[in-house]
Amino acid sequence: MTHKERVLRSIRKEGLDRFPTQITFTPDMARILSRHLGVSEEELPSKLDNHIVMASLNDTVRVDPKEGIRYDNWGIGWDMTLAEGYWIRSRPLENLTDLDRYDLPDPHEGRLYSSAKETVKRYGDEYFILADQGFCLFERAHCLRGFENTLMDLLRNRGFIEELLDRITEYQVAVARRFVDLGVDGGYTGDDFGHQRGLIFSPELWRKFFKPRYERIWKVYKSAGLPVFHHSCGDIREILPDMIELGLDVLNPVQPQAMPIEELAARYGETLTFWGGISTQVTLPFGTPEEVQEEVLRCMRTLGRNNGYIIGPSHDLTTDVPLANFDALLLAIRRYNTSRRKGRDQEGKARVDSDMRHKKHKRLTKRKGIKRDGRFIYYYHPKTGRRA
Is the dihedral angle over the CA atoms 284, 369, 48, 298 positive or is it negative? Predict the structure, then answer.
């Protein structure tokens, strides 16, 4: 079974030899992990057995090395000096509400798609190629206008924000069509609509400003028979039924501190495939290696009960994740996903259930093993002495 087939079977809730995995990371963390694993940064996704390769646009127009700013085709100036997160230094519409004075980018510009075309050609036979339309509508608007300005526009400058979102939507629809023509396997949109305790704005505002526009973008992929992925941080339970109505197939990144995974699995497990769920807010940066392993097991059992699960963290791994916890993440995936690969699904489930019930994995203690990059990475059972 290829990596592409495994992702497709997970989306369709079909039988799997093992769950697909997708572990993402920030640029700074990529450098740390590649040194830790003894591979190049280019080889890192393969070393982690990632199943998805993103097809992205070449949207850089110019770089100001002196100021450390990268300008994209929207005129947005991105900070290049910080490798954790996304920081904007220049917004072309921050003090401008006359769209006639602003030139939107051309979605038909050939150079935009050169990298995506190469990605499909190089990786398309083995991996699932996902068209990257992150910073899609809401995020694109506030990257152009500023976060506070955009929120105020939704309430007080509705004519302006409607026109801006319409123009952004036209661009994204055209980009989606080009991606489909290139031969991608699915579409990925990204807009953070939630915070820790709910939506950033009311569900009524979302349905007025964003639902009909998302319908247009997703329809491009759905009409081509391709699945739709959406990334949103925070608690978006109030609009999940709307998203499913529009054809959402895969939800990412599934932040457990914002949306309990048990509730998500119970309500939407028959419909959605979940990608993520292993906490980058609590467990991975601040938990013990044993707690990391326990959380991986819990996500596999809960989110993966219908085979609709892509194993991964609840966002990019950042430099505050200890290498011992990163090793525990890989160890748990190796231990509890392997039995599925060998065709022993029921045995694997029994093994996971047994470990969760008796919490044997909590009795693992750290002992000196092989030293790599100054970190001890192996864990042993205190009674048997066997390496976990």
Answer: negative
> Does residue 372 surpass a pLDDT of 60?
no
pLDDT in tens, 97-116: 788 889 899 999 999 999 99
pLDDT at 351 over 70: no
Interatomic CA distance for residues 378 and 388, integer angstroms: 7
Determine, yes or no, domain membership for 379: no
How many domains, the chain? 1
> What local confidence, expressed as pLDDT, does residue 339 receive?
54
Question: Half-sphere exposure of 175 toward its Cβ, with a 13 Å CA cutoff?
Answer: 30
Torsion angle defined by CA atoms of residues 190, 7, 282 and 357, in that order, rounded to the nearest 10 degrees: 150
Strands (E) across the chain are located at: 52-55, 60-64, 69-72, 77-79, 88-90, 128-133, 186-190, 194-195, 198-199, 228-231, 250-252, 273-278, 309-313, 365-366, 371-372, 375-376, 379-380
The CATH number assigned to the domain holding 185 equals 3.20.20.210
Residue 364 pLDDT level (bands cut at 50, 70, 90): very low
Domain that holds residue 331: 3-58+101-352
